[in-house]
Each structure stands twice: as structure tokens, then as C-alpha cells.
Specification:
By secondary structure, the chain is of the alpha/beta class. 28% of the residues lie in helices and 23% in strands. The chain folds into 2 domains: 247 residues, TIM Barrel; 120 residues, Lyase, Ornithine Decarboxylase, Chain A, domain 1, CATH 2.40.37. One of its GO terms (biological process) is lysine biosynthetic process via diaminopimelate.
Length: 388
């Protein structure tokens, strides 16, 4: 299991280690519950995700709330909920303090670096909308300390789907250097160092899987070096916030071929799944391996575009993809869709979303019912004047 592998890799080198699952990747309550049973906490980006985490049994003490551009209501609710508040901007602190002083607080630091498999996935660096720049972060912790905050954490989240193992210790070192300056200046002792997530998974056949054991050893060595050097005091928890790494390769998406259309220069394989079901190919140009169920996958006899039924020309799951012979009635399988699949799906074109099924030891359980047209309209109301 991905969770157990990741945890074992880090605990080997740094026993005081915790995992907070990034709920945004896959927010199904059963998925959150499985990871909670394994020992994971929750990384939440809004109050709705905090509610889901609690419904799945995650205690407030194991939830970190990292919003961005928060409303006053969100700040108040987060403070009242008892979760750890992680602020994305120093100027959010005075607004938070209007509702009370938290026992623990952290800031999301932008250490000036970022990485990702697509520009849209880079969430650190000078062009990122996220995080507190180094020049302001000391002021943030000073203000918090003067306001009566007693316990502190240090946080960053700078990339997504990173497959370069060298990136993580390098980014961690930058964060810890900033942390050392905060400690020297203010005497702040951090109870946790949260390096975020971003651990990548291979989507393309040529992608090399991330060596998480190598990453863990290098990151923990970096942390231990900074602790032994005296720049950071205490023995903080080392925390990570993976989402994709834990769930992406656990899930497949099955679609049915309705029609194969031949034009003068292209072949379109029309299915009952599309950008409404899996938007990553349209949004990021993301690659997902697709195979035809029951066909010899070595016999790649045709080049096709695999599309859904949405009224957009960008509704493509794959373009110019080599696949075996396919015809109406065949089933196609899209792999590695457990992260940012259903969680980014939509009901566009009034298309209900599919069911989700959990399979273990040959037993299948429905963990999300298939939607129907009544799910699309259940929150709608027609004023009486429009009924005549």
C-alpha cells in the first residue's frame, strides 16, 4: 500500500513523522476513512474539507487547514473548529485575531522554488499565488507571538507531481534555512516542519517512478543536519501532505464505446466518459494510459482520438493515441485516475457522474451511487409565477 510504503520510508530515518492526507486529491469518505485507519491526518483547503475529514473520523488535532484568500467567516469557523490554522498571507493574521487567538499557528512559506509536471501545477516560486515570501515571514511570526500565540509550525507546499527525487531535499533545505532565521530572530521553536506533498506518480509509460525511499532518506538527512547544527531547536514532527502519491494509481475509470466515427483524416472513438468525468487531459494536457478491455494491447492497429459526449471540441481523453481495434460496445479502461479524477469532475452538459466502487479481496462495494437527472436538479426551485 502506498501509505505504508511512504510512512516506512520516512520513519526509518526520522521516527517523529506524520502524514496528513491531501483531501483535495480524492474526497470520497471511504478513501479518507481508510487512510485515517492507517494513521493519516488530513490536509484541508476549506471548511467543507474539514467537515468531510471529521465525518470520516479524523480528529481536529490531526487536521491542518491551509486556505488561501480566506473570508472572515472561514477564518472564524477554522478557529472555532480547533484545527491547526496555516495562513497563506501575513495580512490574514489580524483578521484571524479578531475572532480569537489560536493556541497553535503556522504560515505557508513560499521559499522561492517550485516544480511540477505542468506549469499549472507549480505552486511555489516568484509567480505563485500561494505562500508568504521570505521577506515577510519573520514579521508574521513576530506578530503572532506578540498576539499571544504559543505554539508554532512551519509549512510549505511548492509543487505537484514531481518525479525528480533531488527536488525535495533541496526545497526542504530552503524552508529550514528560513526557519532557522525565524528561530534566531524570535526564539520561536517549531513543533512541526511540514514540507507539503508533490510526490509524483508515473502516468506515461516512459515515466520513471519516484524513488520515495531515496527521497525520504535525503529529506530526513537534511532535517537532521539542520537540527544537529543548532539552527533549529527542539525535535519537531516532520510532516508531509501527499494526495496523488497515495491514491492516483489505486483507481481506474471504465467507459463504454458508443460509436466509432471515421472522417477523411481522423478516427474518433466516442465513449460515455469525457472531460466531465476526467478533466485532466483537457486542462493540463495530461496523459492517462488507456487500454481496450479484452483486446491484445500489443496489437496497436489504429491511431484514434478518444472523446466523450460533451459539446466541446476539447472533450478529448486522448489525441492521436495508438490502440487495438475498437468498436461499439467495447469497454475502455483509463488508468491512474484516483487523484483529481472525481474530485475535479463536473455535471457539465447535464451529464450525471458515475458510481465509485471499492474493491478489496475480490469483494466490490459501492461507495458513491451513480448520479441521475434528479441529482442535477435537487437544489433547484421554480418560482410559482413560472409554473403557469
Amino acid at each position: 500500500m502506498n501509505y505504508r510504503r511512504l510512512r516506512a520510508a520516512f520513519e526509518k530515518w526520522y521516527p517523529k513523522f506524520r502524514v496528513n492526507y491531501a483531501i483535495k486529491a480524492n474526497s470520497n469518505l471511504s478513501v479518507i476513512s481508510i487512510l485515517r485507519q492507517e494513521g493519516a491526518g488530513a490536509d484541508c483547503s476549506n471548511m467543507e474539507e474539514i467537515t468531510l475529514a471529521r465525518m470520516a473520523g479524523v480528529p481536529s488535532s490531526r487536521i491542518i487547514y491551509t486556505g488561501n484568500y480566506n473570508s472572515d467567516e472561514e477564518l472564524r469557523e477554522a478557529l472555532e473548529s480547533g484545527v491547526t490554522v496555516n495562513l497563506d498571507d501575513v495580512d490574514l493574521l489580524p483578521r484571524l485575531l479578531r475572532h480569537g487567538t489560536p493556541e497553535m499557528l503556522s504560515f505557508r512559506v513560499n521559499p522561492g522554488v517550485g516544480a511540477g509536471s505542468h506549469p499549472g501545477l507549480v505552486v511555489g516560486g516568484e509567480r505563485s499565488k500561494f505562500g508568504v515570501e521570505e521577506a515577510r515571514v519573520i514579521d508574521g511570526y513576530r506578530m503572532a507571538k506578540e498576539a499571544g500565540v504559543r505554539r508554532f509550525g512551519l509549512h510549505m507546499m511548492t509543487g505537484s507531481n514531481v518525479l525528480d527525487p533531488e527536488y525535495f531535499p533541496a526545497a526542504t533545505s530552503k524552508l529550514l534555512e528560513i526557519g532557522e532565521r525565524i528561530t534566531r530572530t524570535l526564539g520561536v521553536e517549531f513543533e512541526f516542519i511540514d514540507i507539503g506533498g508533490g510526490f509524483g506518480v508515473p502516468y506515461r509509460p516512459e515515466d520513471k517512478p519516484l524513488d520515495i525511499e531515496r527521497v525520504a532518506e535525503a529529506v530526513c538527512s537534511t532535517v537532521n543536519h539542520h537540527l544537529e547544527g543548532g539552527g533549529l531547536s527542539g525535535q519537531p514532527y516532520l510532516t508531509v501532505e501527499p494526495g496523488r502519491f497515495l491514491v492516483a494509481d489505486t483507481t481506474i475509470l471504465i467507459g463504454k464505446v458508443h460509436h466509432v466515427k471515421h472522417t477523411s483524416n481522423q478516427v474518433f472513438v466516442g465513449t460515455d466518459i469525457g472531460m466531465n468525468t476526467l478533466i485532466r487531459p483537457m486542462l493540463y494536457g495530461a496523459y492517462h494510459h488507456i487500454y481496450v478491455l479484452g483486446k491484445n494491447q500489443a496489437e496497436l492497429t489504429q491511431t484514434v482520438n478518444i472523446t466523450g459526449q460533451i459539446c466541446e471540441n476539447t472533450d478529448m481523453l486522448a489525441v492521436n493515441r495508438r490502440i487495438p481495434h475498437v468498436e461499439a460496445g467495447d469497454l475502455i479502461v483509463v488508468t491512474t485516475v484516483g487523484a483529481y479524477g472525481f474530485s475535479m469532475s463536473s455535471q457539465y452538459n447535464n451529464r450525471p457522474r458515475p458510481a465509485e466502487v471499492l474493491v478489496k479481496n475480490g469483494e466490490a462495494e459501492i461507495i458513491r451511487q451513480r448520479e441521475n437527472v434528479f441529482d442535477l436538479i435537487q437544489k433547484q426551485h421554480i418560482p410559482p409565477r413560472l409554473l403557469s
